[in-house]
Design goal:
319 residues; alpha+beta; 53% helix
Length: 319
């Protein structure tokens, strides 16, 4: 009887322990299943939030861009885009300026575009710049209708001007991709994508840093207008890019030319010195070294003696 009781106790204990182990195993498996399901749901929610955030950022970027540009008339014929930009800084932070040039004569049309950081700054420019002459020339400033017109009209304008600019990046020189080892091409594409996102969010410091990393670490150069990138550690522009750009910034440029003024003024400047500064600036701009380019531009502008300074016109390449 005692032996039977011990056997029964041992069985009962063993059975209970086995059941307890099975229960713990079941709870563990159930908890893991619930945890995995919850994790998947959390990832789906986060993904939806990221998509919604990116769409909102894209919408805000488009809305903020509209209304930041003004159209300017009455610009002096000798004024460059840099002169126009400097003159309009009194109204706000200028992010872009251009002067319209007649392609046949190479001379200024006396009108141009100025873009500000915000719509409030552009509205301020419309109010105040009419009473702020440029070297004695009265300016007429209004909203740039080309940016504010309806989507349908905007589409018709694009069709009349020809094909739309590309929206996706493309490698312009496949042969040089071998210069990128391992995951280099994949990393470069992700950096370019991250740079685009930074520019849409107006985080220009991050955008510039990424561009500098692409250039210094991978020898990659970018053309934002054509959405092209290529590998060139020695900073040489491939022939394929020059063919695509034609006579544009990467194509064959006209030599810099001096426009004579008075004999007294022309005697105060060394043409070879000025031409040297401007040629070095061309190289710096091709290499996206805009800080050096601006310094060289300032050296050229202040090259004359007797307190004189130069008027430099990039479009016609004259000074």
């Amino acid at each position: 009887l005692l032996l039977n009781n011990e056997m029964n106790n041992e069985y009962s204990t063993s059975s209970w322990m086995d059941k307890n182990v099975e229960l713990k195993r079941y709870d563990s498996m159930t908890g893991q299943a619930v945890s995995t399901k919850t994790e998947k749901q959390r990832k789906r929610r986060n993904q939806k939030r990221r998509i919604a955030f990116n769409e909102k950022q894209e919408q805000n970027f488009k809305e903020n861009f509209l209304g930041t540009r003004v159209f300017v008339q009455g610009i002096p014929n000798y004024a460059s885009w840099q002169d126009l930009k400097d003159h309009f800084k009194v109204a706000g932070e200028v992010v872009f300026a251009s002067v319209s040039i007649d392609p046949e004569t190479g001379r200024s049309k006396g009108c141009g575009i100025v873009q500000f950081e915000s719509t409030a700054m552009s509205q301020n420019a419309i109010k105040m710049m009419r009473d702020h002459p440029m070297d004695g020339h009265k300016l007429f400033v209004r909203e740039d209708y080309q940016e504010s017109r309806g989507e349908k009209q905007h589409l018709n304008d694009r069709q009349s001007r020809g094909p739309s600019p590309p929206t996706t990046w493309k490698c312009a020189d496949e042969e040089n991709l071998q210069l990128l080892s391992g995951d280099g091409p994949f990393i470069v594409k992700n950096l370019i994508k991250a740079r685009d996102q930074a520019r849409r969010r107006k985080n220009y410091d991050t955008s510039d840093n990424i561009r500098e990393d692409l250039k210094t670490k991978y020898g990659v150069h970018l053309d934002d207008r054509k959405k092209l990138w290529w590998v060139s550690p020695d900073n040489i522009v491939p022939d394929t890019i020059k063919e695509l750009k034609g006579n544009g910034r990467w194509g064959k440029q006209k030599p810099w030319r001096q426009i004579p003024t008075t004999q007294e003024n022309d005697a105060c400047v060394d043409p070879d010195l000025v031409t040297g500064f401007l040629k070095q600036r061309d190289i710096a701009r091709r290499e996206k070294d805009f800080k050096t380019a601006d310094l060289l531009l300032e050296k050229a502008r202040t090259a004359p003696d007797n307190g004189l300074f130069l008027r430099i016109h990039d479009e016609s390449r004259t000074w």
